[in-house]
Design a protein that fits this description.
Structural class: alpha/beta
Largest sheet: 6 strands, parallel
Shape: globular
Strand content: 15-25%
Bound molecules: adenosine monophosphate
Number of strands: 9
Length: about 280
């Protein structure tokens, strides 16, 4: 049985009686197979699995994007139930950001480029809400998707820096058969945009092929991705990157593990994806 809780107090008392280790899967809802994979990882390793469903207003730069973010709690709870999740915490905003809330958590260099540069303030909102979730749940493990690679990196940094005793675990990206990474935002794509969006994964595959063939010029790898994207008229490229996998500094020459990543708009929907070159 999955219990659905709203307040911090309800959650704390449920957790006081729960078996350890506790695994946390933070989400914004509209759950899909990517989220389910995180729940399964938690179920396999932890005695108690907690899924949080909270569309965090502080991580949206554009309030219209927050307003149109898809929501369906009944459906989400049914998915959690099917995955054997013990606790769903779906709090109202003032249970997360308590009255008078006045703290921002900002991670440094690793949160700066890519999504950090493209969406000012976004990562401050994410870091702040994740530290609250870590504080309220006190989990032993927290599971995040590699689809948001930079997010996992700065959350690891934050947990280390703030002495948060929750282990941050990254899980592989779950994809559609044509390679498109599952995302709650895919629901906004019209059929033509949905078909076009497969170009993200193709572009990453081009970079990977070039890297496999021995290409080590960052610019050549980025150019391989841009060429593939240029063949898709509906793709409006935000950025294409080949960066150091540990620091996310853009690379002229790839000497160690690198992260190839990109952000592309299809109509009003912005999608991201990445692949490790290692
Ligand atoms: P979201 O609900 O989009 O904030 O995502 C919640 C968690 O699910 C984050 O850690 C995401 O990285 C992860 N996630 C989202 N999409 C996928 C996917 N396609 N595969 C694996 N994890 C994902």
């Amino acid at each position: 049985m999955t219990v659905v809780l709203r307040t911090r107090d309800e959650l704390r008392s449920a957790l006081a009686a729960a078996g350890r280790p506790v695994g946390l899967v933070p989400t914004m809802g509209w759950l899909h197979d990517g989220h389910r994979a995180l729940m399964r990882r938690a179920r396999a390793a932890d005695a108690t699995t907690v899924v949080t469903i909270f569309v965090n207003p502080r991580q949206f730069n554009v309030s219209a994007d927050f307003d149109r973010y898809p929501r369906n709690e009944d459906r989400d709870v049914a998915i959690c139930e099917a995955e054997g999740v013990d606790i769903v915490w779906a709090p109202p905003v003032d249970e997360v950001f308590v009255p008078g809330f006045d703290t921002t958590v900002r991670v440094g260099a690793v949160a700066g480029p890519l999504e950090g540069a493209a969406r000012p303030g976004h990562f401050d909102g994410v870091a702040t809400v994740v530290s609250i979730l870590f504080g309220v749940v006190g989990a032993d493990h927290a599971y995040f998707g590699q689809k948001d690679a930079q997010q996992v990196m700065f959350i690891r940094r934050m947990a280390l820096d703030l002495a948060i005793p929750t282990e941050v675990i990254a899980c592989p990206t779950v994809r559609e058969p044509d390679g498109l990474a599952l995302s709650s935002r895919n629901v906004h794509l019209d059929p033509a945009e949905r078909a076009a969006a497969a170009v993200l994964h193709r572009a990453l595959a081009r970079a990977h092929e070039a890297w496999d063939a021995g290409e080590r010029s960052g610019e050549a790898l980025r150019a391989a991705m841009r060429r593939e994207l240029a063949g898709e008229p509906l793709a409006d490229v935000d950025y294409v990157s080949v960066a150091d996998a540990a620091t996310l500094v853009e690379l002229d020459e790839v000497r160690g593990p690198a992260l190839a990543s990109l952000a592309v708009r299809f109509g009003s929907t912005r999608l991201i994806d990445n692949e490790l070159l290692d």
